Structures
1.
Amino acid sequence: MSDASNTRRHFRQNVIAHDQVADSYDEKHVEIFNSVEQERLAKVVAEVRSLAARPAPDMLDVGAGTGNLSLKFLSVGCRVCAADVSSRSLEQLARKVPDGSLLSTRLLVDNRLPFPDGSFDIVGAYSVLHHIPDYLFAVREMARVLRPGGLIYIDHEWSDRSWRSDPALEQYRALTKLSPWEHLWTLVRSGEAFTLAFAKTVFMKAFVNRRYEREGDIHIWPDDHIEWRRVEAVLAEGEAPIVRSQEYLHYKPRGGRALYDQFRDRCSDMQFVIARKLG
């Protein structure tokens, strides 16, 4: 299969998968929609907003989904354009914003961002790059549509450190990992275990491609993951050098806050970066 065909296939999978889970996405992804992660994210968004040069920045949320990042930037006074491949996800987001005067939505129909050069003051992507076959192209597009002096914010991707041997991280993961029975019960309780999409996932993993993921995750494997040094190089090529980079530990609700606090200063497995375009 050619690279172009592979890209189109992954794009279609993302459209179908995220349309199917849009109504239950927030409830399903407790690793994102929990008080610890939401508090961390709000603090970083406030920091990005404070670095913006303009008093009322125009922000583009790439892969906005149901609005996790968009809502945060709206809350700090940004005008937000939420862009996503899933129309149902964007509909969910629109319902969360009764006064839509500061929010617009845009359906993405291919891998290019449908905006002219230099359209936004802030371009953000949260938990998105690992879905995109050519994630470096996506980063180039983010830099292209950014105004001089604007900011790129990329968050919630596995750090390079997460793929190395780290006893503390391995211990935290073991203490917070769901057992097979707990995972199955979660699927049964949510009703997902009784869907055709779940049956397809089981079939694909068992007989076609063990790396198949229902929601289109691609770069989540030891030999194929987001490489931050390459992201940094692409940002530098786009004249948007990184001004802040931080690794952090991914909070697992199963372990609770007390366990997380024991490990958060001992290990990390996620990363975010903030870059500013020169000019």
2.
Amino acid sequence: MKIIKPKIIKFAHPKEDSWIDIPKSAKNYIPDWFKKMPRQVGGVLNLDENGNPNNTMKACIPTLDAFAAGYMIELWQDIQVKKVLDERGVPSVRFFWGSKPQVLDVTSTTDVENLPIPAGHLDTHFIWKSVVSIETPPGYSCLVTHPMNRFDLPFTTMSGIVDTDKHPLGAGNMPFFFKKDFEGFIPKGTPLFQIFPFKRDNWKSEEDPETYGRAINASKKARSMATGYYRKYVWVKKKYE
């Protein structure tokens, strides 16, 4: 059997910041609320009159794959968030943390005038100041994005793609927006953004009517089992160590 060697993604940080952990596999950050969720509503598998199982999100392998894909940069120090009113009486927040290096910064609100703000977030543009450097093999880039499916976090990080083979990502700035209704502590270890390395390929789209037939056939095969068909016959396990 041919052994396929894993691709290597390299992480580093300045020597003076060696106390900060380098990114870990995203599988280490699957949230407790997902782990505790039963696979079926009520905890017992049942089919309705149309043969549909009472599965929850926990039974969805693509959702699990998204949680566990790539690597995660985590918050390396506790941050306290306090609500304040600015000179206009508009609600804002202040951040407090005890150690260096600086973990975040606030930019001028002028650069968000034409940028859509996520619903329920402050109209101030904040910055995560990462100290981690990232480098990938030739031909591979990185998608850096908000932790997938983590709508429970008190912030929303924006997404970007960096060609980390030609331009290793240094101590970069990641923009994010903060939710209006949060006040309290964001603990050390909270995932800040997810790093997904991928191979750059050229793609071209085309319409293929037969694709629909193949999809219907695949759906019929999946319905031959009450649950678990995708995991058993389709899913390809991914590894990020």
3.
Amino acid sequence: MNATELFSSSRAFELWMYTVSHAQLLIRSNKGGTQTSRVELLFKDVSLIHIGTVMRGISVEIVPLERFVTLDAAKHKIHDRNIYQISSSDFTGYIVASAFVVHEDEREFNEPSGMLEGQPLVTRHIT
């Protein structure tokens, strides 16, 4: 099985939020400079994460398990989920999740995600 590219962009993206509720991971590229919109990537039912916190340019592909030998010890976390390879200009990692959604809007930096509305966006830091 070959990899299937789902999304690609030259914009800078940041790991924005992970919520334990529904195991959701949000990656965001905010408005600014020449960018007049923000782009959000939402992964649902996440069981494994191995990505950078800042990604300059990003590509998201679904890849087969055999491409990831390092995941052999974690196969019990995969079940019926997909392996999404996340590539940026200086790092390649992965996210194991059941679903992936892309959303683009014109909201501002501090406004909540259009995909997570109704969920608390204030997080508590545990030290």
4.
Amino acid sequence: MKYIFCCLMLIFGAAPAVAQTNQAKSINSQEVFGNYTVHFSVFNSTFLTPDAANAAGLTRARDQVLINISVTDNRNAGGVGQAAEVSGTATNLIQQQRVLSFKTITEGDAVYYIAPLRHTNEEVMNFAIDVRPAGGAEAFTLRFSRTLYVEGR
């Protein structure tokens, strides 16, 4: 499993650019909420090797992205992802909403959350991700949009 985490973290910075190709603006991949930073990325599931996908129980498909969420506590040095309750939705431009089913991935001290999402080519998705850090009294909502592309088109 450590391989999967390393692979995902390497993709973390590059993946948003691939998921949203041909867009001029900078793509934000983290947001600070008080003492917590939520790191997020959306990348094509085919970026994972078949072995890494199998080990994590994830499906690879040309028309499927993975939403990756990690929460860090800004008060602790080290920046490893910590436990949280994560849920959310993805809504396209004609207001079709899909509930995201996040899977918890734990590797050593790091915890992150992955949700698969099937899509059509050039589909714009608006994400609303609710996050409540473990032990945190307050939940917060992360909102972002991405244009998704079917791999190999």
